[in-house]
Structures are given as structure tokens and as C-alpha cells.
Amino acid sequence: MLPFLQPGDLVLADFEAYGDRLPQVNDIVVVQHPQNANLRIIKRVTLVFEQSCFIEGDNRLESTDSRFFGCVPLELVLGCATSHLL
Description:
The protein is mostly beta strands. The protein is 5% helix and 41% strand. Strand 3 and strand 4 (52-56) form a beta hairpin.
């Protein structure tokens, strides 16, 4: 799959999207990095569990994602990307 986002793209995010619902498979989410609290990352949800989700980058060869740091607790999912500008 080709990466949806490229370096330099601007992203609009809804930080209230998951107040009353869980992320869904294929949502593009803004996540607090589980190993670096100062870093926010944007990844695609590929699996959703009761208390966590598995996220992956579209560029699988270059992405650091749940394949490396495991499932992300839902409290680290900050919002949903709604659109992006080139």
C-alpha cells in the first residue's frame, strides 16, 4: 500500500472523535507514542481490542508501529485524522 501521508503534509484531526466510540479498523489515528510521551504519531488502525488497538504505518518497510512496540492502549489514542492537505 502506498503511504497516505507524505512528509510535509498537513493533517486536520478531531481530538474528540473517540469520546463515545472506539477507533475502527482503517481509521487513521493520532497517537501518543507509547515509548516517548513527547511524540505524537499518525498510523492506521488494523485491529481493535477491548482496551487497545494495533496500529501500522502504510509504509511498512519504514514504519515504527505496533509490530515493534505492541498494541497501543486506548488512552494513548488522541484523535482521528479527518483530512489532510498536500
